[in-house]
Amino acid sequence: MSTMSEQSGTDLDQFRPVLDRLGGALEELAGYVDPDHGGWTRRVLSEPYTASRSWVRDAMRDAGLTVHVDEAGNTIGVLPGRRGSGPALATGSHTDTVANGGRFDGVAGVVGALEVVHRLRETDTRLDSDLMVIDFLGEEPNEFGVSCIGSRAIAGTVSRDYLDHERDDGLSLGSALQQRGMDPSTVMDMAWAPGRISAFVELHIEQGPVLERVGTQIGVVTAIAGIERVIATFLGRADHAGTAAMADRKDALVAAAEAVLAVEQIGCAGEQATGAAVSTVGRLEVEPGALNVVPSLARLWTELRSPDPGWLGTARRDVVEQFKLIAEHRRLELDLDWLNDQDPVPTAPSMQDVIAVTADHLGYSWRAMPSGAGHDSAHIAAMAPTGMIFVPSRDGRSHCPEEWTDLADLGRGVHALAATLVRLDRRGSA
Ligand code: GLV
Ligand code: MN
Ligand code: MN
């Protein structure tokens, strides 16, 4: 077994991943997709997702990990450390996708972590701490309108309200979890004790254009954007589209159209003022949805994101105010259902340092940057010092089938992840 009190770039060089194996794992996992969707689709709790997670369990075992699935459906593999007890180091990400998504979002951090384990074992490197590799359950916003099921459960922030969110057919998230053998009350009450892990590092694709544009190999994440999500329903009145005079209508879709523009304006102003704010209406439902009926209902799934908590608060108030004005002006009713909000989360400065110093030792260029995307790390950060390593995304594309990261780029991220974990282990904690 090698012991390294100091890790030079040369010592750390041995953890360079085997790219063929890494690429093969990506390829295999990409085989589990929903045939009814385009791109790479593995929605949480769906059949292909469930099948893919048995691939994950097998891959964890093949890498030499002891595997279990916890009370919230997180798949956890453990590589026992020399010390035998005490806080573990942890890494991981998620393997669910958005509908019509890509092959790398989340998957990179899971197969990357498995490659790290392979390299540790192949180099006879025994860590002092246990190393946990986690495939968190359901990171992406799901059909119940909420996200990060597994990491929230670990952080102890799954509430009854959260589990009561329903999908279109009225099934609640809690019932859906129950149907799959999970106990909702345990999911709400399974928070990890403080000190269970000493640090968490997540490898992820950037999902934006910065690293590629500036030609930098590694992103050291400084903060994860906060997210405010609201489902806004404008309720008007269905009328005959041929006979209802324009002035008499209570057209919910026209109100929604104004609301979409208002949301865009709020994001544009925020981006200009703070440098990092965005706003999106990602889904619009219209009822009754007929060519010849004035729409009686329009539902907008809206989100606001920024690493700046001040802007998020103001933008949330702006959305409420503008939507109310639109409804009033058009004599409609308005219902606002705010979903699980997520405060902006800074990563631990100590973790940023160790990742940056490690990248320097490996000879990789890096830059500090915030994440506009949400991550399980935002929840795990409440449990232990947490850091994130980004690798470039081609053309900045993500959440679409074109999402791509070259294997060589991903390989540098995996190498940085391995070396960061080794450094953290040798120094005891972050
Ligand atoms: C997750 O990918 C998110 O940022 O919504
Ligand atoms: Mn995603
Ligand atoms: Mn992700």
UniProtKB/TrEMBL annotation:
Gene3D superfamilies: 3.30.70.360, Zn peptidases. Keywords: Hydrolase, Metal-binding, Zinc. Binds 2 Zn(2+) ions per subunit. SUPFAM superfamilies: Bacterial exopeptidase dimerisation domain, Zn-dependent exopeptidases. Zn(2+) 1 binds at H94, D105, H204. Its cofactor is Zn(2+). It holds the Pfam family Peptidase_M20. One of its GO terms (molecular function) is hydrolase activity, acting on carbon-nitrogen (but not peptide) bonds, in linear amidines. Allantoate binds at R229, N292, R305. CDD domains: M20_bAS. The keyword Transmembrane does not apply. It comes from the Bacteria. Zn(2+) 2 binds at D105, E140, H399. NCBIfam families: hydantase (TIGR01879). Belongs to the peptidase M20 family. This is M20 family metallo-hydrolase. It comes from Nakamurella leprariae.
